[in-house]
Design a protein that fits this description.
By secondary structure, the chain is α/β, with parallel strands linked by helices. It folds into three domains: 89 residues, NAD(P)-binding Rossmann-like Domain (Rossmann fold), CATH 3.40.50; 209 residues, Mur-like, catalytic domain (UDP-N-acetylmuramoyl-L-alanine:D-glutamate ligase, 3-Layer(aba) Sandwich), CATH 3.40.1190.10; 148 residues, Protein-Tyrosine Phosphatase, Chain A (Alpha-Beta Complex), CATH 3.90.190. It has 15 helices and 20 strands. The strands form three sheets. The chain has a nine-stranded mixed sheet, with helices on both faces. Helix 1 links the parallel strand 1 and strand 2. Helix 5 crosses helix 10 and helix 5 crosses helix 11.
Length: 481
């Protein structure tokens, strides 16, 4: 737990007592701050109180006594409408920050690496953290991924925090300057929270806030929004700017050519390793993640040969194209983290003969980003609130079933595969939608899928014990290998 010493003896408001909010309340209390914590949910308040967190009704408190509100990032403070507590804080001229800001203020001697992007940031964060730790660096991994910022260990000088940063967190992190800041990609997501696409892009760009040479910006150039940001940063020239790509060569950057990772940061176009040989990094999107991780770790001084070895030992993340089991010759892939169509498209691009389980609470844009890959889907099984609207989007050329729930979808997919008799089939849970209509989070959705797969009758095999058993993966050009 981080010692937030700067607030010792001062009252600090905390609103939202989920994972990060409760962590902040406990850390501030242990650091001697006077905690005023509140949540609109009675059960959350009770849970916090049971752990010794002082509760103060922030709707009725004296805001003149406060200087700081630690707001859980999921709570709106601007768009589509400020939460009343955020409005009270702003009216009283109280700063609104999140737990990552508290970490930055408390651990100023440590280095920080920040990773953001619409898709891929969790894998890239975990991959960078893996490389840092395996190569012998003193590194902690957290933020939006897994461990809340203030639950990390204090590192001090020589240590590095590797932090996944959502757009919500970036808006509430005002003074942290990342030693290496990574922007992977931008596509439409969370637009209602940022007042539209321009606001969302501005939030993502904040990760480069106050960077100066030798601090480094690693920027994906595979989408027009991110490529524009790369050009803007390069033109201004405040920091070192390294482009990365999974689809084209980029001078002075890191890129892939049909899965071969190439380092041109020194102008030498040096081959690093064949990413197609790493089973935990399937698909073009993971090639971009690997390019970003390589560029980031090289910027911190880790030798390329060490990075290469660490890439090859990366185990992968749960719920992100997680290969579960092969059951009676059928591979089951858990990609529950794919909560928007762009993320689902990345998974669809990796396999053939897909029996796709999709649906949940739909996001803006529906399934548009996934439609170019529908020719790889043999049958779609649709669940949740979006089942009916997704059925209208899929089109007449892709058979579908309105399954309703995950258990039914898994059973129906198994029946359909037996009927079709197609070899190297894949049951892919990649919902393209949020989980909140039927589950508390995407983890719970993925965990249920794993349990359902484990309970299936038949012969169960480890997906990587024999490469010939694993389904064909595709390159970015769409060619099977």
């Amino acid at each position: 737990m981080i010692d937030v010493f700067a607030f010792a003896g001062y009252p600090v408001a905390i609103f939202g007592l989920g994972r990060s909010g409760l962590s902040a309340a406990l850390a501030l209390g242990a650091s001697g701050a006077k905690v005023w914590a509140w949540d609109d949910n009675e059960a959350s308040r009770a849970q916090a109180e049971a752990q010794g967190v002082p509760l103060v009704d922030l709707y009725a408190c004296d805001w003149a006594e406060l200087t700081t509100l630690v707001l859980s990032p999921g709570i709106p403070h601007t768009h589509p409408k400020p939460h009343p507590i955020a409005a009270l804080a702003r009216k009283a001229n109280v700063e609104i920050i999140c737990d990552v800001e508290l970490l930055g203020r408390s651990q100023r001697l440590s280095s920080t690496i920040g990773i953001t992007g619409t898709n891929g940031k969790s894998t890239t964060t975990a991959l960078i953290g893996h490389i840092m730790q395996v190569s012998g660096r003193d590194a902690e991994i957290g933020g939006n991924l897994g461990t809340p910022a203030l639950d990390l260990e204090a590192l001090g000088e020589g240590g590095t925090y590797v932090l996944e940063m959502s757009s919500y967190q970036l808006e509430l992190t005002v003074s942290v300057t990342f030693d290496v800041a990574v922007l992977l990609n931008i596509s439409a997501d969370h637009l209602e929270r940022h007042g539209g696409m321009d606001g969302y892009i501005d939030a993502k760009k904040w990760i480069f806030h106050r960077q100066t040479d030798p601090r480094t910006a690693v920027v994906g150039v595979d989408d027009p929004f991110s490529e524009k940001i790369f050009k803007e940063l390069k033109d201004v020239g405040d920091q070192v700017v390294v482009p990365i790509s999974a689809t084209k060569s980029v001078a002075g950057g890191v890129y892939t050519d049909d899965g071969l990772l190439i380092d041109d940061t020194d102008g030498q176009k040096t081959p690093v390793c064949d990413l197609k040989a790493i089973p935990s990094l399937p698909g073009v999107h993971n090639w971009q993640n690997a390019a970003a991780a390589y560029a980031t770790c090289k910027a911190t001084g880790i030798e390329p040969r060490v990075i290469m070895a660490c890439l090859q030992s990366y185990p992968g993340l749960v719920h992100r194209q997680e290969a579960l089991e092969i059951v009676d010759g059928v591979a089951y892939i858990n990609d529950s983290k794919a909560t928007n169509a762009a993320a689902a498209a990345r998974a669809l691009a990796c396999y053939a003969n897909i029996y796709w389980i999709a649906g949940g609470r739909p996001k803006e844009g529906g399934l548009a980003a996934a439609k170019p890959y529908m020719d790889r889907v043999r049958h779609a099984f649709l669940i949740g609130e979006s089942a009916l609207p997704f059925s209208h989007e899929i089109g007449k050329d892709t058979p579908f079933t309105l399954s309703g729930d995950l258990k039914t979808a898994v059973a129906q997919a198994r029946q359909q595969i037996a009927k079709d008799g197609v070899e190297h089939s894949v049951v892919l849970l990649s919902p393209g939608a949020a989980s909140f209509d039927q589950y508390p989070n995407f983890e719970a959705r993925g965990d249920e899928f794993k349990a359902l797969v484990e309970d299936l009758p038949g012969e169960h095999l480890d997906p990587f014990e024999d490469p010939d058993l694993f389904p064909i993966r595709y390159t970015h050009a769409g060619e099977a290998r």
